[in-house]
Amino acid sequence: MEVHHHPHVEKKKFKEYLFEFIMIFLAVTLGFFAENLREHISNRKKEKEYIQSLVEDLKKDTIKINYVVKKITERNKGIDTFLSLLSDPAIISNSNRLFRLREDLGFPDFIYTDRTIQQLKNTGELRLIRVVKTSNLIIAYDADARNVLLLDNILNNIIDPVIRSTNHILDFSAIKGWTQGLGYNNLQIPQEPIALLVKNRDALIEYSNNISDYKRFALGFSRELINLKNEGAMLLAYLQQQYHLTNEN
After folding, report:
1. Cα 155 from Cα 225, distance rounded (Å)
2. In 3D, which of 131, 74, 126, 144 has the Cα closest to residue 104?
3. How far apart are the first and last CA of the chain?
4. pLDDT tens per residue across span 165-197
5. Fewest Cβ atoms closer than 10 Å to its Cβ: which of 12, 75, 82, 162?
6. Is the pTM of this model over 0.70?
């Protein structure tokens, strides 16, 4: 009968176990730190990309605000002429000068460029903005811009009935080109006087009052737009300085 001898296995010393443990621990720890570093770098890259996109949005808002404010200022001058003509008793029998001035009763809407802020909020990536002051300034600008949009909507609600009531005051049937979509400067207004559709001075006073209310609110809207532009300019300068974008944009 053969006797099998088991091979002798030398037991590891405690120091060897400790060394292996330390090596495994270091490998796991370094892997953890490497992953965190990779995520940190990725987040910082995303943050800067969002800020660069936001900077472009702010620049677009400034251009749009300048355009709207300019148009409101120009058209308010036309409204002043419009109101002075309505106060002239002779306008009842000859309203020809009012037709082209009617264009001044409208105004261009402010279109807020909120693509970046919406993305930051909807994806939850507003958390990528590390500095609390920065995120607070961005949120404050967004809130003020949306308040301006509400004012824009209110102004539309004010002007709509004014424009509709204009259709009860002026007789457009005598204007050539009105139904062809021509611009106001291309309308063919007859030489002969076109009488107003109403002869009641009280109706014209009410109409004039409504236009005056519109103008007053339009001026307030314009001031809010300018305030938003100034706020946007300060935010833009802050972001460019904070993220060292001055030489990149």
Report:
1. 13
2. 74
3. 91
4. 888 898 888 887 777 777 777 778 888 888 899
5. 12
6. yes
